[in-house]
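It is worth pausing here to work through a concrete case rather than discussing structure prediction in the abstract. The textbook approach is simple: state the sequence, then state the predicted structure, then interpret. We follow exactly that order.
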Amino acid sequence: MNNLRKLGAAALLFASGFAAQAAEPDGYYSSCENKGGKDLLSALCSKIGPHTTVSYDGLWNVYKTSDVRSDGTLWDMYSTKRWSTNFTKCGNYQSVGDCVNREHSMPKSWFNEGSPMKSDAFHVYPTDGKVNGQRSNYPYGECANGTTLPGSGSVKALGRLGASTTPGYSGRVFEPDDEYKGDFARTYFYMAACYNTKIGGWTSDMFAGNSYPVYKQWAIDVLLKWHRQDPVSDKERDRNDAVYKHQKNRNPFIDHPEMAEYIWGDRKTERWTLAGSNDPVLTLPVSGSTVDLGTTVAGVARTAAVKVAGSNLDSDVTLSVSGAGFTVSPATIAKATAGSAAGGSATVTFTPATEGSYTAVLTVASGSLRSTVNLRGTAISTLPAAQASAVGAESFTAKWSYIGDADASGCYTLDVKCGGSSIAGYPRSVNAAAESFTVEGLIPETQYIYTVSSMHLVSDPVTVTTTAPMPAVTFLYDDDPVLYANPGEPSAAAELLVEVEFIDVAINVSVSAPFQISTDKSSWSTALTLDPEEDRMYLRVLSDNLGTYRTSIVARAGDYFNDDAEFEAIVAAPGSNFLEDFEKVGSNDGTYNNHTYEGKTVNWDFTDAGKWAADAAHGGTYAVRMGKTSTSCIAMAEDHPYGLGKVTMWVKRYNQDSEAQFELEYSTDGGRTWATAGTGRVTDTSYKQLTFTVNAAGNARMRVRQTSGARFNIDDIEATTYASGIDDAVADYHTWDAYARDGRIVVETMQPASVSIYALDGTILYRAEIAGTAEIEVATGLYIVAVDDYARRVLVK
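Step two, the predicted structure:
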């Protein structure tokens, strides 16, 4: 990763900081020395392949240290949003910036969601959910005119989706932001090494179907290019160290970036050694690369910054240019500057004397090391306008070169035409020095022509055609994505709303057993086909075996693929409720010492609290005594895996002490953040039961935190498993349902309700009071079923 971005039409070559390396243990890679190519990759597999498997839910805990910026916000490589510590995890999303997902940079469908790959933190990153959905399971690559999702407020999407422009592959690819291309390249090198004995059987257009070289040549070309132009950053080094603490393995291509050259690059016939990694290396600019200074007019200069970096250099770096029209400054960069974390920088200037195309060669040298860079530029007689970028269905970015000759306000005039006429809002003034302007509100799959004018020059017309709209299938669920069931009994059916955009073919949906899906609550299977007009389906779990299960909901429609939505199910024995009676004898009984108490179900952290046999218990020998201070607290030190539903506890004042007050709080992120379920008041000298509604799904814990008052006793804390967390308005929506079965509309109501069925033209076809279940005969077609203020679409086939 780097912190440099492209400026206008001038190409940048990126900086390197190889001087400081991640803190690998001494001798960690000794077993990999004196090997190259296939042998080195195999040796790395033996070294980093065996590692501790982090659970899929455990990734959220890893991210607390692996992907946090210095200001405490979460690092997102798919959007510009700086997520706070209480970020929203995806479920549902509509826009960029809605929620955070666990992005498999190497899509999980490529390895059939196998373990431990699915939860390997080295390739599963926290990213924006909407952009994650756009990326889908497309390969990484480069696309000249890919589509970037529209932002939301100040949050912008990063990356773009489009047709590959890399020789050897023309399929659709997702191109990450320049800032993170090296990060993803080294991630893919890690996956090739860590899973070298498995990866030959995985499926993707990037794979060669073997254990070496693993990737097809076009993919190797792209990954090596990104690896070289975006060298290792402190972000990656810190992440490498953080993940190592959890998984007990490392990414060798962060510790020793040169290993990629010994396996896939220019040195694959040589043998890597740790000592050799200290040889002088001229890292940037990449030899053979090209800097295009763009287009200008005769006599008007264009400039480009070229980063110069290396490691272990023993001579200063010299720079020279051969070719008319180009110069470089400075001519020398100190070896210490080039070898620093920031690297050095030189400026290449292109000043054409006349119209025409120009080329030159930049030579960068340090001792015997050489790097040559091709330079090119063009001079024309009109104002230089470039091909549009970021072309989407409803927008594109017009581009030009700034040559002066702006009006008094520093503006050029941009005109955009469609069908020979200027579109609404154009022509308009634009900041000339900005060299770009985003044109919005356009029609998909439509041709536009734009020109840019200065005071005395007009550009040649530039033609751009907007893309087709981005297809999408989104599964929406208004509760937590967790189902509960007893062995041998199906869970309640969860209703999933299906939003379909720009798809007009059948949608094949599938889940993994023991999950099942249905459109009519009668026929259940692991796969079904939806018509694009159907907007709902149902999900349940049915298993004879106890356990926790997960599935992705996979949608396929033509070339479209999405496996972003995920559900969890817990199959537990009846009576899997939580109970803590504090009867187990602890080593700190009879004291207020802060300590961890080993309870009946989980461990508890006691703060200024203790338990005494002398205190009157509610139903045994021991009760907890709170109130050594007015901020006493007992907190679950680990999660209850079945969620928390209704919580009850027994409390009383201690002896004749005055009243007290406390908060019952719960956490679903391992105790990182807490939410309040309710306030408890302790007013009586005899035990009184208090009840709180938590309704937290999945892994959850609770704590009792005193806020005021004197000492009090607490005993026999119980909690049911999660029931439902939906709010009252949503609960009203779920008091009835309507769907199609066997050519009929089936309406179910939990209480008597007035039901209306409408044709799409608004004609009322049916209206009646229904209590229970009713089946209404109708012709095939699409209908609207309404109860009060709520409506459902029903497609009858």
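Step three, interpretation. Confidence is low (pLDDT under 50) at residues 2-22, 724-730. The first helix runs from residue 37 to 48.
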